[in-house]
Every structure is written in C-alpha cells, then in structure tokens.
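Lecture 7 notes. Example A: sequence first, then its structure tokens.
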Amino acid sequence: MDDALLIKRVHDQDQKALYQLYDKYSGALFGVILRMCRNESLAEDLLQETFIKIWRNIGSYDETRGKFYTWAYRIAKNTTLNALRKNDLLIQTEDLSVYGTTSPTETTPDYTELNGALKKLEPHHQEALSLIYFKGYTHREAHTVMGVPLGTFKSYISQALKSLRKTYGNELMMFWLLTELISNG
C-alpha cells in the first residue's frame, strides 16, 4: 500500500495502518537503533518508543520535505541518541550473576507453532522476511539482494505477513517480530 495513504490513515488514528507501517519499516529501523545502542533490550524499547512517537506526531510529517522513512529514521535516531545521553553507560545495569533469574514457576512462551508456520511459507517469502526483519535491510536493499523488482519484493513481504496474520493476528505478530528481532539481533 502507498505510504501516503497509510500516513493519512494513521493521521486519522487507524491502528491497522500503523501496523502496516510497522511491518514495512520496523526491521530497518530496529537495525539502525541496534547499531547505535548495541543493546538488544534497549533497542526493543526504543523501537517501540519510536513507533509511539510516529503515532503521536504523524501530523508533523510533511511529505514535501522528504520521504516517510527519512522522517521515521530521524525519530529513531534522535530517540536513541536521547536515551544514550540519559543513561550513563559506564554504570553496570545488568545482573551478571551466574544464577538464573527465572523462578521455576515462570514459563516462557512457546513459539514452536509460529516458527513452524514460518517454515511452511514459500522459500522466497522466508528469505524476504529474513532480510527485512532479521538482517535489518531496507526494502530497496533487500530486493537487490534477492534479485527481484522492488514491487515484487514488497508483495513477497505483504503476502508472507498476510499469511501469518491469518493464523496469528496482528498483536501476536507484532510481539513475535519484536521478540525475533531481539533474539536474532
């Protein structure tokens, strides 16, 4: 879907349009944030904060001044820089003990079924998702890597996400993508 239409829909408070912008740009933005902060947990939080800012400030986006990705990139970069300035990175904030921090009663979510669904996708859909969400490529970079036209590549992403959404819904898909981005850095 055209960015201009999605942006108008986000401006009209359409959450589905925000999900679509997230689907399209989160992989590349996460890659930028992670390279800047070098902390997966912080990068996850900053990506979420970036999309919250996009949601709240979409009215300030002016398409005559640049592309949406450039605007979103600046939000991600500034959000990350501000967070890094706030945190004194010389202070140890992580527990580096040798003991596990999870109690025996805590359970971790089982993504076996979702991971199986990914493996059921067509190989070109798997590769397209991998390039965008796990390796941080932009759509323009990834279509070149795959050797297909940009429109074809975008349709691969759209078809793959649509297939996964049919089974799992938007909320689980966003949670899963964030989890995968963090675990696969």
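Example B, a different protein, same format:
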Amino acid sequence: MAESTAPANDLAGAARLLDYWAIGYRRTWKGTAISSFVNPLFYVLAMGVLLGDYISGDPGQLEGATSYLAFIAPGLLAGQAMQTSFGETTYPVMGMIKWQRVYYAMTASPLSVRSVILGHLGFVMFRVGLTCGVFVLVMAPFGVFETVWGAVLAFLVQFLVGLAFATPIYAFSAGLKDESPFALVFRLGMIPLFLFSGAFFPIDNLDRWMQVLAQATPLWHGVDLTRMLTLDTVDGSAALVHVAYLVVLAALGWLWAVHRLSRRLMS
C-alpha cells in the first residue's frame, strides 16, 4: 500500500527506482566490463607510457607536468567521465522512451518526471564513479598524483564533469523522435571535444580562435581542473571559475531535461 502513495519529494521518488537500476545493471554489467575496467589500463599504457617515451617531459611546455604521462593522465580521466555520460544519456534515454517505453510506465505511477530523471542521472553518476574510480586506481601506481588529497579531489571532480555533460545531453536525447542524430553527436561532438580540449596537448598549440573555442567547452574546464589537482598546481580563482562553469551548465541542463521529457511524455 505504501508504494502506491506519492513520494514525499522528487528525491524520495528517485530512491524508489534504486531496485530497477540495480537489477538492470546486475544483468548487463558484463557488457560494459571492457569499457569500464580494461580501457583505462590500455589508455594509460598506450598513450601515457609508450607514446610518452617519445615526448620530452618539459614542465614549461606541459603545464607543469614533468612527464607526458603526468600531463595526459588527468585529461584521459576527465575524458572518461565525458564519454561515460555520453554513452549513458543517448541511446539508453531513447530506449526508455521509444523502444521499451519504460518512462511511460514509471510516470503512470505516482513518480514525477523529475524523480524519473533523478533516478536515471543517479545511475549515470554511479557509472561515472565506477569507471573513473578504476581510472584513478590505474593511474596511481604510475606516480602521476603529487598528493593523496589531489587524487581524491580529482576523482570527485569527475562527478561534476560527468553531470555537466549528462544533463544537457539527456535533455537533447529526451526530445528526439529517433536516434539518427546520435551519430553526429558522437562524431561532431564527443570526439572533437576529446581531441581538442587540452587532454592530449596544451591548447596553446592551437590557433587563437581555436583556443578561445576550446576554453568555452566543458571538457576543457574539467581537464584543466583535474590537471591542477593531479599536479598540485591549483590556482584558486581559476578553479572556482571551472567549478562555477560546470555547475551552471549542469543546472541549465537539468531544467532543459525536465522541460523536454515532460513535453515528450505528454505527446
């Protein structure tokens, strides 16, 4: 009888979905084992260790990093948070609306649209924490973290990075009629962001207009903040700007997501 009553608030409603997401992940986790547990090791070894042997570790050219591995590892970590959010808020959202129509069943109960979104985003944050946690554990033995607190904070920042991508992409996905735009989202959105937001090389190497464009992207803010914490070169004012940017983007994405999904489920 208690389950048929309306939850006290949106967060309580999202908590009712915990069993759904836990059972779903328990049944499907093997399909994400490679991307979650193996890819981080391959990324660090291939890009940081093997390729890093061919690049001189000049702190003056690598934003304070004494090796290419120390420079690239924070960028790969932030990139992992971004990629996980992209993966979990595109096709899965479309599936919940168009193919399995699970969202319709959820909102036919006393759950609100906000509770449904919170539940899904909570699962996305679980996936971000899992994949980035493995990444941090892989990075740690290579000595890229200057301090323990830097490693902990760098990991926690990935939740903010992931959320800054998850909410607007979720909103975009929620309003689509079919999945065809996702190909462009990955090819013209995620991949260029990963390549040109300072993860693999300092953006000072880009033309001025491209530097400005890179600095306007959420991944650059995530990469720079993660690198500051990893290398223990934190600039307080710059860090606050990064955090504020990511928080505002996540908040605007949330409002857009609620609006888009509400309209989609009523159509």
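Note on Example B: The chain is about 75% helix and 0% strand. The CA atoms of residues 88 and 183 lie 15 Å apart.
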